[in-house]
Amino acid sequence: MFLENRNKTHNSVLNYLLGFFIIAVFYMLGQIPLAIAVVVKTLSSGKSMPTNEEEIMKIFSPNTTLFLMLLIFVSTMIGIVLVVKYLHKLKMIDITTSRDKVDWQRIFFSFSIWSSFTVLSTLAFYFSSPESFVLNFKLVPFLILLLISFTLLPIQTSAEEYIFRGYLMQGLGLLAKNRWFPLVTTSLMFGLMHILNPEVQKMGYIIMVYYIGTGFFLGIITLMDDGMELALGFHAANNITAALLVSSDWSALKTESIFKDISTPSVGFEVLAPVIIIFPILLIIFSKKYKWTNWKEKLTGKIVLHKPEITQNSESHE
């Protein structure tokens, strides 16, 4: 099982705490290129240093800003790999899936089903209220965005999934020895991670229902499927399609997208619909396709920790 079969010699709670700290350090190191670029650009232009994130976002073109921000997650992913390999003495597949190898078909299926839904729903919104959108398409900037989206955005989404649905979920499972605690805790943490997003400031805290609900959805499909593949595909599809299709002046992700949303931000049923309608439908689709059973045990049951493996060299001799 995904939360049970990776508890080996180097997987103590203290090691997970140390590992999380190291990953956080790599996250901060990843901000150095952006900081250097901001300083150089500001000094060369003779302007005063920016004092907030909104001012930083205006210094460079959207593509350059996106590129520099995504480097943060490249550094974070390096930190995750190093922690898993050298601190926990594991392979990346150990925190990815309970299967012998990564199931890329699962990733592509999840990616395709969510990207298709996002494209269709975006077109539906556009044709139902075209006054809320303007065409923002510019060929060269869009092609650059396309390159960034399919190279660096999957690293960003994968880093977040490996932290929440992989590393933290297994670490918290080791601590609590049950499944519901890591599911609830990582879902809340994932949602609260977005609390400083501009969307929250514009729409209010009700939008946190969507972010936390998304965290629960990703956690549920990870536990039910005994691996992160479906979550990896979904998260990548969500961010890539969001970057390519629609951006706005008040969103966290400002890109050279095809459309720009010029409507006044407001909270409507479309914010709650994914959590109460779309995600449950996706759970049904995934459960039918992958024949999920025993929901209660997989989502709330106890975790039976495996004893550390004993090698021939580590056996004691009398």
Automatic annotation (TrEMBL):
UniProt superkingdom: Bacteria
Top-level enzyme category: hydrolase
Annotated CAAX prenyl protease 2/Lysostaphin resistance protein A-like domain residues: 144-240
EC number(s) on file: 3.4.-.-
InterPro entries the UniProt entry points to: Rce1/LyrA-like_dom
TM segment ranges: 12-40, 66-87, 107-127, 139-159, 203-223, 267-286
Zinc-finger keyword on record: no
Key words, A-Z: Hydrolase, Membrane, Transmembrane, Transmembrane helix
One family name in Pfam for this protein: Rce1-like
GO molecular function: hydrolase activity
Name of this protein: CPBP family intramembrane glutamic endopeptidase
Source species: Flavobacterium buctense
Organism classification: Bacteria, Pseudomonadati, Bacteroidota, Flavobacteriia, Flavobacteriales
